[in-house]
Write a structure and sequence with these properties.
globular, 67% helix, MESH1, mainly alpha
């Protein structure tokens, strides 16, 4: 039988925490990176999102891009739909940053609703972080550009 949704969500949190265990945020406090996916999931939960897949994608949204995680690994652990949604939110790190941002804008309309919700919560949390703490090494102009783009 399928594990209960809460158990699946907890397993997803543990997976994401393990994958991001050596990473920190860019903020001055070097916050553990896992706080970001947790915050993205929390934002969605606070506005009433209860869909398990959406919350799992929120927790996993940076794993393919920022950790040693493979598509088959996500598919095996969380199913093809979660893997597909996470993949749709993953930037091509072979592209220059400006080209990457343009690619995000081009694909935004075609994203599945669940992925759109995660993308919005992700950007919201990033903007909140920048406004609350700033990012060391980023000029005010660069921070403002990110916020305007988000």
């Amino acid at each position: 039988t399928e594990p209960q949704p809460l158990l699946q969500l907890l397993r997803t949190m543990v997976f994401a925490a393990t994958k991001h265990r050596h990473q920190t945020r860019k903020d001055p406090l070097k916050t553990p990176y896992i706080n970001h996916p947790l915050a993205v999931a929390r934002i969605l939960a606070e506005v009433g999102i209860r869909d398990l897949e959406t919350l799992q994608v929120a927790l996993l949204h940076d794993t393919l891009e920022d950790t040693v995680t493979t598509h088959p690994e996500l598919r095996d652990k969380f199913g093809p739909k979660v893997e597909e949604l996470v993949s749709s939110l993953t930037d091509n790190d072979q592209l220059k940053p400006t080209t990457r941002k343009l690619a995000q804008l081009r694909t935004a309309k075609s994203l599945h609703l669940k992925a759109k919700l995660v993308r919005i919560a992700d950007k919201l949390h990033n903007v909140w972080d920048i406004k609350s703490h700033g990012i060391p090494g980023w000029s005010e102009e660069r921070q403002d550009k990110y916020i305007a783009w988000a």
